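Section 3.1: Structural characterization of target chains.
Under the original work plan, the team committed to producing a structural model for every single-chain target entering the pipeline before any wet-lab resources were allocated. The record below documents one such target. The sequence was received from the expression subgroup and is listed exactly as submitted; it comprises 264 residues.
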Amino acid sequence: MKNDVFWYKGKLIKSQSLELKINDPGLLYGATVFTTLRVYENLLDSNLTNWQAHCDRLLSSIQTFGWQQPDWELVRQGAQILLAHFPVLRITLFPDGREWITGRLLPQDLTEKQNNGVFCAVASSEFYRSLPSHKTGNYLSAWLAKTSLDAQEAILVDAQGNWLETSTGNLWGWYDCSWYTPPIKAGILPGIVRSQLVNWLQNHQQPVREEPWTVELVQRFEAIAYTNSVVEIIPIHTVHQPSGSLQYNPYHPSFQQIRELFIA
């Protein structure tokens, strides 16, 4: 099955186009919430797929915004049909309860990035995500940050220059035998994998420090990476910034500890 099939309003549709009304707030304002998940073992209920956590995050945003809930049975039905053809699903919900599910393949260069890392660039502080604790359809700032830089990934920062997250994931750093990740209150997305990792590392007696990533702290890290539900963990070997580039070890042994979480 090719990418010209998707699920919308309780139906499987074979097309490369989605028809929306011209005054649809999802079209006009990006008024949607979404979550992207990777299906493991071809099962929505696999612990690694974390289906319920993704649904809970959607529900939390819907309740915060006062939107209509979707028919959750239809959401699961659409996901179940598409997972037979795609390892990655994106579930989008509209304010009036409509569900829209699309599928895609894993990135072709994913293994290369996981093994050898990527280079990033620090974006201008104007490219901050609106409503950062929610995954809304208005992702323009993150998209601009990534596409306007000569880098494989962009690092978003606040007005003080503190690193927040990448355009697609949460940040992790290793220093002084501890893992560091920016705190939620700094204005970042509470990623599903981020929550999994915090709990998993703490259960394995590995300290996790949630602290602001200041200009001073990022220079101390031996290794850094970003995580999300699709790519798992991607080391970062270089970060370009106006004051000069920072280098990190993409082969640091600490990464092996995190990779163990994703072994089904």
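The chain has two domains: 5-104, 110-262.
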